[in-house]
Design goal:
By secondary structure, the protein is α/β, with parallel strands linked by helices. Helix content is 34%, strand content 15%. The longest helix is centred in the C-terminal third of the chain and has 20 residues. The structure holds 1,4-dihydronicotinamide adenine dinucleotide.
Amino acid sequence: MEKIAFFDARSYDRTYFDALAPRAGLELVYLENRLNAQTAVLAGGCAGVCAFVSDDLGAETLSLLAKLGVRCAALRCAGYNNVDLAAAERYGVRVFRVPAYSPASVAEHAAALLLTLTRRTHRAFTRTRERNFSLEGLVGTDLEGKTVGVVGTGKVGIRFAQIMRGFGARVLACDPAPQWGAGLQYVRLDELIRRSDVISLHCPLTPQTYHMLSRASFHAMRPGVILINTSRGALIDSEALLDNVKSGKVGAAGLDVYEEEADVFYEDVSSKVMRDDTLNLLLSQPNVLVTGHQAFLTREALRAIAETTVENLRKFFAGEKIETELRPSAAPAGI
Ligand code: NAI
């Protein structure tokens, strides 16, 4: 059996990995700690580590892992902005990932955020538990006939566009690599921003897409626009978003990601003082719905993640080619 230190382990990970690992000759050592230069020592005696998007695989961590005899890092996510691939190559730690698991999971979560906001079900939930059945303040909006702008039409964006069409919405799309066969109407980002009643982001975070929804973009949006972001927080200028929520320009915002999420997401910080005032103020608005980067969190996606990760590790120890291996020249990708 090959021992793997499984960092940042959660109960939902264990359910799916425990079912698969023994058959692939793997013994998983579950650790609740995030992987970083301080915790790398916990991988002592293991041939590999299994890490998540919230772990830090910078040069220092990788050098320590290599000294401990760790030969591979299996990422159980698609994104790898948290890995210094050049350092990994230097220290002889091979890195592989799960490039795609369940685009439907993310697209359906985006739709869930949108429907919650258009039909105010988050407010009805708390009211009816208090036996308050008043309908005051719960007037919603139909999606049928509305214009939904989909920014990025890769695996997730295409699925989201299909869902929106199912609701009878008119879909506008924008992507530097359009999928012409999908029958979508492609326009430039500025036109999409001007014409859409709903804008949903489905593109990766790159130097080009950082703050792609800027203060100027908010100025150009339709009054009452609904924003949905399940991609990366830094696609939106959060300060500008907050100002436009406060002014009423933005009708509602559904956010599964947030620019400064690294310090708080994936953790229970409910008994701590939160210093991020922008997040505090966003959370306090009735028309802002924040989820903690959970769009991927379905049974189907978790099963697919576990299957690919375990298969990657099996291939590594069997000396087989791993299609999802990352090289230093790889471009950045999302979670
Ligand atoms: P993908 O790689 O299949 O598609 C991304 C699309 O964005 C591509 O078609 C690309 O051409 C396009 N794009 C790149 N730059 C653009 C720009 N400037 N404007 C418009 N489009 C642009 O990725 P996939 O699987 O569809 O995922 C989309 C995003 O969803 C990821 O980048 C990731 O950030 C996010 N994600 C979030 C998860 C969550 O749990 N919240 C889970 C998985 C992914």
